[in-house]
Amino acid sequence: MDHPAQGTAIEHQIFITERPGCVPCAIPRQDNGNGPSLIFNEGEGTKSPKRCSRSNPLVYEAITLLKEHGYLPARVAESSLPIHLIGLKKARSLLIHVIRSRTPVPSAARLHSLFLSEVEILCRLAGAIPYQIMIWVYSPACNWRYYLVYPGGLRRDLDFPASLDI
Known about the structure:
Strand order of the largest sheet: 2-9-8-7-6-5-4
CATH architecture: 3-Layer(aba) Sandwich
Number of domains: 1
Radius of gyration: 16 Å
Oligomer: single chain
Shape: globular
């Protein structure tokens, strides 16, 4: 089997689930009734999420918060996915995408409309892996907001930071 970086696609079947309070992601459904496919393909000619190797102070704030709640944080420097941090804990692992927005992001619907490509990728990923995915957004007007990502959409985590202690 070829490595994905050589252009071979790896498919994962994911299923759309409806959750109360979720903003749905526009993930196309297949006609075969098995749900959509998630395809990772890093070969030439494919567009991958923006890679960022520079230091981001918000990521370091998030690292501090993870440490305070007993997680072992790992910063992801060069990823083909929009993931900045991995938080490891005995009970669970988190994948976190950190966003700084100049405009207010008061709701999941606003987050989805402002950062469509990142949200769509993370929604697809949420159905393909057994880890919790979160988006942590900082905007000067709203300060920090925390969102849970599901295969069918996302919702604001109103229990944060207590939800980290699970």
